[in-house]
Amino acid sequence: MDWNAAVGWWVAAGVLVAAELATGTFYLLMLALGAAAGAVAAHLGTGFNVQLVAAALIGGGATALWHLKRFRNPQSAPAEANPDVNLDIGQTVRVESWNAEGSAQVHYRGASWSAVYRGSGTPAPGEHTIVAVQGSRLVVSPRASH
Length: 146
Fold this sequence. Notes:
The protein is α+β, with helices and mostly antiparallel strands. It has 2 domains: 5-72, no CATH class; 79-142, CATH 2.40.50.140. Helix content is 42%, strand content 22%. The protein is built from 3 helices and 5 strands; from the N terminus they run αααβββββ. The protein has helices at 5-23, 27-43, 48-72, and strands at 92-95, 103-108, 111-117, 126-134, 137-142. The protein has a 5-stranded mixed beta sheet, with no helix packed on it. A hairpin with a 2-residue loop joins β4 (126-134) and β5 (137-142).
């Protein structure tokens, strides 16, 4: 079998995509784009040095742009406190009384839930907002006054 430079670049791109699928490292897809650019340069008949520069510029540039995008857009909140994942976040519950260790039993959605306090100061009875759900326990903070 006669392999030319373009086939080598395409194989490298395929290996990078397979490695990304196995590891979940999105940066490997950016490097695969670079390998694809090297393959295109090889198809155009350029020398190996030009292919290498094309692969480095496209792969490195895509990696740098992706890193910059992630830096400017911080990651979302963890699932337990993310209202896009858990629709209970932001809902209101009424706490009748708090136990000495900062826990309470509340009624929410027709069931009794354990609740824990997250806030400054001593927990007080009244309206609270759900800020996270940890298993079957609601994490609540005092409801902000409007």
